[in-house]
Amino acid sequence: MRNFLQLFTFLFCIAAIAQQVVTPAVLPEKTVSDTYHGTVVKDPYRYVENLEDPTVLSWMRDHSNYARTQLDAIPGRKSLLDKFFEFDSRVSSNVSTTRITENGRYFYIKFRPEDDNGKLYYRDRYQGKEKLLFDPETYRPDADVNYVINNIFPDKKGDKVAVFVSADGSENSDLFILSKDGTRFPDLIDRCDYWGFSWMPDNESFTYLRYNSSDLKDVNRQINMKTFLHVMGSDVDQDRIALSADTHPAMEIAPKEIPIFYYDELTRRYFAAPVTVEKNYRLYMSENKTPGLPENWVKVVKMEDEVVNTRTDGKYLYVKSFKNAPNYKISRLPLDNTNSPAETVVPESKNEVIRDFEVTREGLYYSTTENGVESKVYFIANGQTKAKRLELPFTAGSIDLSNVRSDLADIWMEITGWTSPSKRYRYLANTNTFEYEPLSSQAEYPELDQMEIKETTITSHDGTRVPLSIIYKKGLNMNGKNPTLLYGYGSYGATFTPVFSPILLNFVVHDGVFAIAHVRGGGELGDKWHKAGQKTTKPNTWKDAIAAAEYLIAEKYSSKETLGIWGGSAGGILVGRAMTERPDLFSFAIPEVGAMNTVRMEASPNGPVNAPEFGTVEDPDEFRALLEMDSYHHLKDGVSYPATLVTAGFNDPRVIAWEPAKFAARLQKVQAGNNPVLFYTDFEAGHGIGDSKSKVFNSFADTFAFALWQGKHPDFQPSKKVKMR
C-alpha cells in the first residue's frame, strides 16, 4: 500500500510540474499580545500554534505541495539524488547501534543498498554467522506508516533483546522483546522513550521510561515523567513505578526533569539520574541486596560537581567534570565511600578538550580534540599515573570509544575524518597494536582525491578567534562566484568533529563549497565555549556565523550573491538570527526543523526540558535573551530577506511544527522583493531522527538543490522564475 502511494505521489508531482502551479496565499495575521516583565510582545500568528485548525493545516499543505513542486523542478536535483544512491550502492552493508554482550554476542542494525530501513541482526561472536532477527517492515504491515528501529538493548547474556520501534519519525516508541532466535515475547509497551531502559538482575524484568501521552502536541507529555518496572509476562497496566517525583520526594525531581533509572551489573548497584538537556546532572546510588526495587538512595554526584559523564569498575566511580576545568578532567571516588574527596586521574589540558573515556581491565582510555578538529587517544595503564598517547592507524578527526564491561580488556575505536571513511579497530594493550575489525563494508571513493580541506580560525565581532572548516574541490577558482553553504549549530555544548560523509561529498562533487563554523554555544573549545553561546550570551552564536560568512566573502570563496547559511533544530536560531541581522550578507538561508520562536518554546511539549539551555520567560534576564534569539520576532516589514527554504516535520517531538510554520508565515508576509520563501512540511516525518534512507536522501537533495540553485550554479537554474506570491 505504501509503495503504491509513493508511486501515486511521484506521478502526481510529475503531472503538477507540467501544469502551471498556483502560488499559495499568504496567511493573514491575527495579532495577540503578551506582556513579559513589562515588555509587550505582539504575536501575529499565535493561531498557527493550533495544528488542528483546518485553516492552518490547509495553508501548511498548500505550501508544502507548492514547495515540493518547485524543488522537484530544479534541474540538478535528480543528479544529486542519483549520486546519493550511487554512493550508497558502493557499500554492501552499513552497520550501526552495535551492542556486544559480556559473552561476545553481537546485536546491531544493518542497512544494505536495497534496504530503505535498517534491520536487526545477531551473531555469536565477531566471526559468527549472521542471523536476521527483525525487519521493521514486517511490524504492523497493514499500517500506512513507516516503522524504524530506534534502539536495542540485549540482556547481559544476549539471550533476549529489547527493541524500540516508532512510526514516521515520531520517536514515540513501541517496546517489545525478542529472543536471540527471533521469537517475539507477548509483552508490548507503547509511548516509550527509547533511551530510558535497563535490564534488572534477574533478566526477566526491566525498567522503562514512558511518556504521559502519545499525542506529540500534548504540552504535558514530558512533565512529571515516570520510569516503570515491568516483569515479563505480566500486565503492563499493573507495572510499578520505579522512579518518579512522587515516589522519591527526597530526590526533589522537578516536573521538567526526566527520571533515568538503571542497574549496573558489574557493581550490582542501582543508579538514578534526574536529567534535562543540561550537561551536568546529579546522580544517586543504591546498593540493594534484597529482591525488588531499592528504597535507600545516596546522592553521589551533586549539580555543583559539574559532572557530565560517569563510568564504573568494581571499585571506583569515574566522573568527567568541568568543575574548575573548562576543558574537562577525569576523577574517581571509591564506590564504598563516595563521600571521600575525588582523586584526579586525568587533569585538565590547556589545549585539548577531553571528549570521551572508557575503563577496561587494563586501564583507562580517553580521547581529546584540539580546536574541535584534531582527535587523539591516550591510555593510562592500571597502576600508572602517566598517560601514553596511542599512535593511531591514521590521523583522526573523530574517535568513538566503546567497550563491553570494565572488567574485560576489550576496547574498540572507530576512527574517521573529513576525507577518511570510518574504520573500526580493536586495540590490544598488551601488544600496543590495532586490529582492524570492520562491521560495515568498505568502499572506494576516488572523488576524495579531488577534495581540499582548510582548517582556520576567523575573528568574530568581539575579537574572539572561531574555528572554521572549509571543504572544496582542489583547484577552486577563488573568484567569489562559488555556491557556498555555511553550516552551524552552536547549542548544548555539541561538538562537530570531522567525520566522513558521502552526503557532504556529494555537495562538493557538484562544485559546492561547504564550510562549518564551530561557533560559540558548541563544545569545540570546552565548557567556556558552550557558556559563551548560551542564554544571555547566545548572540555570539549567530555573530560568529556572520563573521565566518564575511571571511568566506573576503577570501573570495563566495560572495553575497552565492553564499547561503544552513542549520537545523537549535541551529535554526543561528540561521534565523544571522539572516534577520544581516539579510544583505546571504543569497539564501535554510533553517531546517528550526527553533524559530524561542519566546514561545516553553509552550511546546519539549520546551520546558530545554529551558536550562536557552532560558525561561519566567526570569526577566532570560526572557530578554529568548526574545533576542527569537528569529520570528526579528522579522521586519519591507526588508528583502534571502531566498529561504523553511522545513518542518509534522510529527516532530523536539521542535514542534508550529515554530518553523510561524516563522515561514511571517517571512512570507513581510518579504520585500522577489526572493522566494518556500515552506515545506513533511507530514510523515519528525525531527529527522528515524527517517528511512530514501527520505534522508530526498531531504538532502532538497537542501543541496536549493543551495545550488540560489548559489547561482548554472546547472541548477529552473526554466521559470519562482514567484514569491
Helices and strands, with pairings:
Layout lengths: L1 H17 L13 E5 L2 E5 L10 H19 L4 H13 L4 E7 L4 E7 L7 E6 L6 E4 L12 E8 L5 E8 L5 E7 L4 E16 L5 E6 L15 E6 L8 E4 L14 E7 L4 E7 L7 E4 L11 E4 L5 E6 L3 E6 L7 E6 L8 E4 L6 E7 L3 E8 L3 E8 L6 E2 L8 E5 L9 E6 L2 E9 L4 E4 L14 E9 L5 E9 L10 E4 L14 H8 L3 E5 L9 H5 L7 H16 L8 E6 L2 H11 L6 E5 L18 H4 L5 H9 L14 E7 L8 H13 L6 E6 L10 H18 L15
Parallel strand pairs: 32-33, 32-34, 34-35, 35-36, 36-37
Antiparallel strand pairs: 1-2, 3-4, 4-5, 5-6, 7-8, 8-9, 9-10, 10-11, 11-12, 12-13, 14-15, 15-16, 16-17, 18-19, 19-20, 20-21, 22-23, 23-24, 24-25, 26-27, 27-28, 28-29, 30-31, 31-33
Helix pairs in contact: 1-2, 3-4, 3-11, 6-7
Number of helices: 11
Q: CATH topology of the domain at 59-87 and 445-716, which one?
A: Rossmann fold
* General form: globular
- Going by helix content, strand content and strand pairing, the class is alpha+beta
Radius of gyration: 25 Å
CATH class of the domain at 59-87 and 445-716: Alpha Beta
The counted number of beta strands is 37
- What is the spatial order of strands in the main beta sheet? 30-31-33-32-34-35-36-37
Sheet of most strands: 8 strands, mixed
